[in-house]
């Protein structure tokens, strides 16, 4: 599941 | 991490390094919009505050630190070290016309009404338009050095590659972030006119100059 608040892109 | 994301990040890195090297080697920031560079420094600062709150990967942390460091180094070179070569008269875009609406929009449309999330949203919206002072400067002077066009091409290519990354992630991971996607499309579209000139002129060995 992705957490939209954890931004893993730069 | 997919190939589009990785090449996008590397393209972004290449753009930043090209600009730094251009200014450093020529000892001049002629033709470069200091305002755009301040906006990019602001973009990285407000976006990467999560360096303090969450760890994603060593790659992620290192790239963020490099981007922020280079952004401030570029601003320093333009406004301090090589200030005498800065062409302020042609860098006349009114940045408040970007920052104020973008600030308002990030408060209104975000994923979560929290300080860090609003600042992240602000950075995404601001990045999409941060190049406008630079494009405005080129349209005003009617020309750009070839090395500057390489910088702009890499910078535009980076967000275009991210668009493919988002398509990839939607299909293979079910992931999508509407705020980043819409802003990314806007950002890429702003470069289209430049891409056309780059391919039809610069890649054929001609200098980028606009008809008077």
Automatic annotation (TrEMBL), chain B:
Keywords: Cytoplasmic vesicle, Endoplasmic reticulum, ER-Golgi transport, Membrane, Protein transport, Receptor, Transmembrane, Transmembrane helix, Transport. It is found in: Cytoplasmic vesicle, COPI-coated vesicle membrane; Endoplasmic reticulum membrane; Golgi apparatus membrane. The gene is LOC102215457. This is ER lumen protein-retaining receptor. GO terms for biological process: protein retention in ER lumen; protein transport; vesicle-mediated transport. It comes from the Eukaryota. It comes from Pundamilia nyererei. Its main location: membrane. GO terms for cellular component: COPI-coated vesicle membrane; endoplasmic reticulum membrane; Golgi membrane. GO terms for molecular function: ER retention sequence binding. The keyword Membrane applies. The chain crosses the membrane at residues 65-82, 119-138, 150-168, 174-199. PROSITE patterns: ER_LUMEN_RECEPTOR_1, ER_LUMEN_RECEPTOR_2. It is a multi-pass membrane protein. Belongs to the ERD2 family.
């Amino acid at each position: 599941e992705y957490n939209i608040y954890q931004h893993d892109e730069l | 991490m997919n190939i589009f994301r990785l090449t996008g990040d590397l393209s972004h890195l290449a753009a930043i390094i090209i600009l730094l090297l251009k200014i450093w080697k020529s000892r001049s920031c002629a033709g470069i919009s200091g305002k755009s560079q301040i906006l990019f420094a602001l973009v990285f600062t407000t976006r990467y505050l999560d360096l303090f709150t969450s760890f994603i990967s060593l790659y992620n942390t290192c790239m963020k630190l490099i981007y922020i460091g280079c952004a401030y180094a570029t601003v320093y070179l333009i406004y301090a070290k090589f200030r005498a070569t800065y062409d302020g008269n042609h860098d006349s875009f009114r940045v408040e016309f970007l920052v104020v609406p973008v600030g308002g929009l990030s408060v209104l449309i975000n994923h979560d009404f929290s300080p860090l999330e609003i600042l992240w949203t602000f950075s995404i919206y601001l990045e999409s338009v941060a190049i406008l002072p630079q494009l405005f400067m080129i349209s005003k002077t009617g020309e750009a050095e070839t090395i500057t066009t390489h910088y702009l091409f890499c910078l535009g290519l980076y967000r275009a590659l991210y668009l493919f990354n988002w398509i990839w992630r939607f299909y293979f991971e079910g992931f999508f972030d509407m705020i980043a996607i819409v802003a990314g499309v806007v950002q890429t579209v702003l470069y289209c006119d430049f891409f056309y000139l780059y391919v039809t002129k610069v890649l054929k060995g001609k200098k980028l100059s606009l008809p008077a």
